[in-house]
Write a structure and sequence with these properties.
The protein is α/β, with parallel strands linked by helices and about 250 residues long. The protein contains 7 helices and 10 strands. The structure holds S-adenosyl-L-homocysteine. S-adenosyl-L-homocysteine binds next to strand 2, helix 5 and strand 4.
């Protein structure tokens, strides 16, 4: 085997990924108030280091978002846990994610819902995401390449929808594609700063709730931001608002 063919594990012989993951769950997630045993268990089971580029594997369990290529990022572990928790999944859900990226958030969701459809705009990311999830055995996730600000009408309605990128306003098609009793969680605000919004559809009425401040990369497309919104350097990274000082800003 030549040097080029080394796996991420060979590149990081000193990293005990399982230990790093347990510590991540305890210190970054449980200690900050996510208490659902099912969510904590899912976070403890998904090998986050398999979802980042090999050179970032040693940082995979750090308290920060990381670059995944294509100018995009895998969200901070806490943010993934908070968004997942906010959907109150019981295992029966037909779920839609917008912004598949690396597939990490979809993998976490797939352990807590019946099936996940994730839509990714960038063809290369969508292909890599599909292949990675299949290889790792997350077989109840379907990766679709497309413009997810329009939702994914072909498989609607959904019991839960999670948007992994920030929108200027709640995209109406996503609300339309929610089933009765369905939950939608989406970061809404400017390209620099958003609030995590949860909407619950009950009896045709929508209950809106503001959960926390956050920073995500922009949702592009019809109900997102114009292309180029990500080029200003101001875009966020799937980060919780607090507790990020002292961390380098991940950039491509
Ligand atoms: N959930 C991902 C985070 C990805 S970052 C993970 O766990 O890794 C947000 C993703 O949203 C990026 O991959 C970006 O390409 C994608 N995206 C942006 N606008 C989109 C749109 N309109 N439809 C689908 N995906 C979009």
């Amino acid at each position: 085997m030549n040097a080029e063919a080394k796996s991420p594990i060979d590149l990081n012989p000193h990293v005990d990924f399982a230990a790093a993951r347990s510590e991540m769950v305890a210190k970054q997630i449980r200690a900050r108030g996510v208490s659902s045993a099912r969510v904590l268990d899912a976070m403890a089971r998904v090998p986050r280091h398999e979802f980042v580029p090999p050179e970032s594997a040693a940082s995979a369990y750090f308290d920060e978002p990381l670059p995944i290529g294509g100018g995009q990022t895998i969200s901070q572990p806490l943010m993934v846990a908070v968004m997942t928790d906010s959907l109150a999944l019981n295992g029966s859900e037909h779920l839609l994610e917008i912004g598949g990226g690396s597939g990490y958030q979809a993998a976490v969701l797939s352990l807590l819902a019946r099936e996940v459809v994730t839509v990714e705009l960038q063809p290369e990311l969508a292909r890599a995401c599909r292949q990675r999830l299949r290889q790792l055995g997350f077989l109840n996730v379907r990766v679709e390449e497309g413009e997810g600000s329009l939702g994914w009408p072909a498989s609607a309605p959904y019991d839960a929808i999670l948007v992994s990128a920030s929108a200027p306003a709640v995209p109406p098609p996503l609300v339309e594609q929610l089933a009765e009793g369905g939950r939608l969680v989406v970061p809404v605000g400017s390209t620099e700063q958003q609030d995590l919004i949860r909407i619950i559809k009950r009896g045709g009425l929508m209950a809106h709730e503001k959960l926390s401040a956050c920073r995500f990369v922009p949702l592009l497309g019809r109900y997102g931001w114009p292309a180029g919104a990500n080029d200003s350097g101001a875009a966020g990274h799937g980060d919780s608002h607090h507790d990020t000082s002292g961390h380098g800003t991940p950039r491509e």
